[in-house]
Description:
Number of helices of chain A: 9
Order of helices and strands of chain B: HEEHEHEEHEEHHEHEHHHH
Low-confidence stretches of chain B: none
Shape of chain A: globular
Number of domains of chain B: 1
CATH superfamily of chain A: 2-enoyl-CoA Hydratase, Chain A, domain 1
Order of helices and strands of chain A: EEHEHEEHEEHEHEHHHH
Largest sheet of chain B: 6 strands, mixed
Mean pLDDT of chain B: 95
Number of strands of chain B: 9
Strand content of chain B: 15-25%
Distance between the termini of chain A: 23 Å
Oligomer: heterodimer
Radius of gyration of chain A: 17 Å
Amino acid sequence: MIRTERDGGVLILRLDRPEKRNALTPTMLGALAEAVVAGAGAGAGSRAIVLSGVGEVFCAGFDLSLCRDDEGALGAMLTGLSRCVRTLRRSPSPVVVSAHGAAVAGGCALLGGADVVVTDERARLGYPVVRLGISPAVTAPFLRLAVGDGASRVRALDPGLIDGMEALRIGLAHECLATPAEAEARAIDIAREIAAKPPGGVAATKAWLNDIDGSGADADADAGLAASLGLAGSDEQRERLRELWAGGGKR
Amino acid sequence: MSETLATLVIDGRIATLTLNRPGARNALSIDLLRALHGRVDELGAHAEVSVLVVAGAGKSFCAGMDLKAVLGDPAAPGVLLHLLAELTLKVRALPMVTLAKVNGAAIGGGCGLACVCDVAITHADATMGYPEVDLGVCPAVVAPWLARKIGAGRARRVLLCGGVMTGRAAFDLGMVDRLVQTGADLDAAAAEVAARLATGGPHALRATKALLNELDGSGDGGTVRRGADLSASVIALPETQALLRAKFDRPS
């Protein structure tokens, strides 16, 4: 469910479940974290990572259908997501995400692990899951680093989605291309440019940025995860998920 | 010599500090940094000044750290970087409002000097940015100031991708606050901004700036000094030394 490709010094990881808009499962999240650890860093030969998704859409979020039969599935996905974001953030190799088509809920939260985000004009980004009684708190510590306190408050509380140009305006994305295919191609180009730079300075700079913005430490990320986990299985959430499935699962 | 490397002119409430090493695009040498420290210290005796304009003589604002001059001396990068670190802290702590008039290239440490100022103005064709990583160097001293200026997320993208950008792109990123179309328009526009800033009540301006410094952690000298040590250690790496020698065409 994670497709791995080597392109010179660039490691390309693609979420590979296009028939489900690359919806995340605990297994996929675990595989993603493992692939980042195994494939990045000087020893493994890659100097930059691209995270993308197969098909028209980067990632539609968690596969919530798993929660129907498994009470623990949401918690497992939240924990797996938090681990993925931290693993990406702490990888010595800079991470470029192609947030093409859609980066929604857990998919948008994955951008927390990115150093650079590329999207496209018609992409849809945001956190509609508060409607389901699920809190995006798990991503809040990283969202505020990306867009600042004012915009992160809006994005975490407003279940509406924004397009790629608005994501660019608030700083959730750094470049916005015309189409999903161009977005992914540009993400790969940026990663190639980074991979061609002297590795010592790049690695020191990324580690320093993690140091000064606090994202190298666990305190905030732990608090965000705990807040999201604290709601897992709440009455409100059960009721709203039941309504979702009664309506055919369409959000 | 240091008297002329950096000049300070005071005209009523507005002072102008000029980097005056145009033959070297105002690159920050140890001597220039010491001269800048001297001029900034002199400002302490001028309580009447409300606004400090920082500018570069000639076509450039500041081409960045003068690494060429320190290549032969292993101790020199640390001295240079700590002088820069202390200068950024000193400029940020000034009680008056600071306005960077980015009249031309503002690169690396020079861009950092612009970003440590409270307000920055430039023209559309100026060149700004942080190409440190392209040379194997780590922009650790200037990173905290850029993060305060444009936010941690955008700073991450700018510093890890290296390269330079136009004044217009810098304006779009929030690295500068006012943009004019050409260099010919800059003097008048900067004078207008400085004059407007100087209309603020001196006590209100000082109190407001002090609060902003407190809120965003600008007094945290420890991080900037650790950044100087880190940056010097990366310059000392054999990989970086080889790249810098190649760039400056010097035998090892």
